[in-house]
Design goal:
- By secondary structure, the chain is of the alpha+beta class.
- The protein folds into three domains: about 110 residues, Butyryl-Coa Dehydrogenase, subunit A, domain 1 (Orthogonal Bundle); about 110 residues, Butyryl-CoA Dehydrogenase, subunit A, domain 2 (Beta Barrel); about 140 residues, Butyryl-CoA Dehydrogenase, subunit A, domain 3.
- It is built from ten helices and ten strands.
- The strands form three sheets. A four-stranded mixed β-sheet has the order 1-4-5-8, with helices on one face. A four-stranded antiparallel β-sheet has the order 2-3-7-6, with helices on one face. Strands 9-10 form a two-stranded antiparallel ribbon.
- Helix 3 packs across helix 6.
- The radius of gyration is 21 Å and the shape is globular.
- The two termini are about 30 Å apart.
- Coenzyme a persulfide binds next to helix 6 and helix 10.
Length: about 375
C-alpha cells in the first residue's frame, strides 16, 4: 500500500466517532477534572466502551485489531479536546498493553490482555526511577531469584508512572536489574507485577502542572515476590524491550502534540474571528492573521511527519527515526500553538474559563515525557550516524 495524504473510510469513521465523544462527553468535564486534579473512573470506562482500549491488540486476545494510523487518529482526537484523557489512552495502549502483546508468551497474553481491552482495567509501564529518567539503564530496582521458591524478589521504586495508582490499575511491567556483566553493565529484565501483590505500594502523585486528570503514580517494591513465570520476554532483554516500546510510544505522544496543536489553532481562530479591536475582528489585523497562518503551517507539517511515521510502522518498515522526529516536532508545534494561542487571547488566555490556559500547561509535558526533546535529538542524531 502506498502512503496516502487523506483519511480513508476507516480513518474518517474513527475520527468522527472519537471527535463526537470528546466534544460531547469529555469537553464538559475537562475543566472541572483538571481543577480538582481528579482521575475519572467513569470516563475511562466509557472510553473503553468506545473501543479505545487494546486498540492494536488482535481480536483473538480481546483487542480491537485496529491499524496503527487509526490508533494515532483516536489519540489525536482526544488530545484535541483534553490531554489528560488522551494520556490515559495513549499510556495504556502503547506502554501498558503493547509490551504484554509483543513480548508475552501465549499464556501471559491470554491471562492479561482480554481484561485490558475493555476499559475495566489499566496496565502501567515501570521504567522511570527517581535516579533513572533519560539514563534509563541506570535502574536501581533489583530482582533476585529465589531458587527454592522459584520466585523473583523485587525491591526498589518507580516514579511518574501513568495509570499506575488508579482504582482501575491491574498491574505494571517493571524493569529491574537481574544481574551484572563483567564490565559492570546491568543485566535488565522485565516482570509482570499484578496490582495488589504483597509489598507493592502505589501512591497517586498530586500537584502536577499538567495532565491533572490523568493518573500518575509513585511505586515502591518491598520484597515483592512474583513467580518465575512472571518474567516478560527473555532475561537480559528488558532494556531493548523497553526501548522498542518507547519507539512505539513516541507515535502516541506525537499524536497528543498534533491533537493539542489542532485544538489550540481552532479555538484561537474562532476567538480571533469574534473578538474585535480598533473597529474590526482581530483576525483581520495582520499581527494576528500571521500568527494563525504560522500555526496552521506548522500543524500541517506536523501532521505529515506523524502520519508518515505511523504509516511506516503499520507497513512494518523502519520507523524509529521518524517516530523520534514526529515526537520532537509535534510536541514543539503543540507548545508553539498553545503559546501563540494564549497570546492571541490576551488576558482571557490567562483565565481557567478558557481551555487555552489548560492547553498551555498540558503542552509542557510533551517535550519532557516519554523521552525529552533532547533525547529525541540524540536518537535522531544516532540514526544520522553522528
Ligand atoms: N530498540 C532496540 N534496541 C535498542 C534501542 C531501540 N530503540 N535503543 C537502544 N537499544 C539497544 C542497543 O542496541 C544496545 O544493544 P547492545 O547492548 O546489544 O549493543 C542497548 O540497547 C543499549 O543501547 P545504548 O548503549 O544506545 O543505550 P544508552 O544507555 O546509550 O541509552 C537512550 C540510549 C538515551 C536512547 C535511551 O536510554 C533512552 O531512550 N532514554 C530515554 C528514556 C525515556 O524515554 N524515558 C522516559 C520514559 S517515560 S514512559
Amino acid at each position: 500500500m502506498s502512503y496516502q495524504f487523506e483519511d480513508n473510510e476507516e480513518l474518517t469513521m474513527m475520527r468522527q466517532t472519537v471527535r463526537k465523544f470528546a466534544e460531547t462527553e469529555i469537553a464538559p468535564l475537562a475543566r472541572d477534572l483538571d481543577e480538582r486534579e481528579e482521575f475519572s473512573v467513569e470516563l475511562t470506562k466509557r472510553m473503553g466502551g468506545l473501543g479505545l482500549f487494546g486498540t492494536v491488540v488482535p481480536t483473538e486476545y480481546g483487542g480491537q485489531g485496529m491499524d496503527y494510523l487509526s490508533y494515532v487518529v483516536a489519540v489525536e482526537e482526544l488530545a484535541r479536546v483534553d490531554g489528560s484523557q488522551a494520556a490515559t489512552i495513549a499510556a495504556h495502549n502503547s506502554l501498558g498493553a503493547a509490551p504484554l502483546y509483543y513480548y508475552g508468551n501465549e499464556e501471559q497474553k491470554r491471562q492479561y490482555l482480554p481484561s485490558l481491552c475493555t476499559g475495566e482495567g489499566l496496565w502501567a509501564f515501570g521504567l522511570t526511577e527517581p535516579e533513572a529518567g533519560s539514563d534509563a539503564q541506570a535502574s536501581k530496582t533489583s530482582a533476585v531469584f529465589d531458587s527454592v521458591k522459584q520466585e523473583w524478589v523485587i525491591n526498589g521504586s518507580k516514579i511518574w508512572i501513568t495509570n499506575s495508582a488508579s482504582a482501575l490499575t491491574k498491574g505494571i511491567t517493571v524493569q529491574a536489574v537481574t544481574g551484572r556483566a563483567e564490565n559492570g553493565r546491568a543485566e535488565l529484565s522485565c516482570f509482570i507485577v499484578p496490582a495488589g501483590t504483597p509489598g507493592v505500594t502505589a501512591k497517586a502523585m498530586h500537584g502536577k502542572m499538567m495532565w491533572r486528570a490523568s493518573n500518575t503514580g509513585e511505586l515502591y517494591f518491598d520484597n515483592v515476590r512474583v513467580p518465575a513465570g512472571n518474567m516478560l520476554g527473555v532475561r537480559g532483554q528488558g532494556f531493548k524491550m523497553m526501548m522498542e516500546t518507547l519507539d512505539n510510544g513516541r507515535l502516541s505522544i506525537a499524536a497528543m502534540g498534533l491533537g493539542l496543536a489542532k485544538g489550540a489553532l481552532e479555538m484561537t481562530l474562532r476567538y480571533a474571528q469574534e473578538r474585535r479591536t480598533f473597529g474590526k475582528a482581530i483576525s483581520q489585523h495582520q499581527a494576528v492573521a500571521f500568527k494563525l497562518a504560522e500555526m496552521a503551517t506548522r500543524v500541517e507539517a506536523a501532521e505529515g511527519l506523524l502520519y508518515k511515521a505511523a504509516w511506516l510502522k503499520q507497513e512494518h518498515k523502519p520507523f524509529q527515526k521518524q517516530a523520534a522526529m514526529a515526537k520532537l516536532y509535534c510536541s514543539e508545534v503543540a507548545e508553539y500553538c498553545a503559546r501563540e494561542g494564549q497570546q492571541t487571547f490576551g488576558g482571557y488566555g490567562l483565565m481557567k474559563e478558557y481551555p487555552i490556559e489548560r492547553f498551555y500547561r498540558d503542552a509542557a509535558l510533551l517535550r519532557i515525557g516519554e523521552g525529552t526533546s533532547e533525547i529525541q535529538r540524540l536518537v535522531i542524531s544516532r540514526y544520522l550516524g553522528c
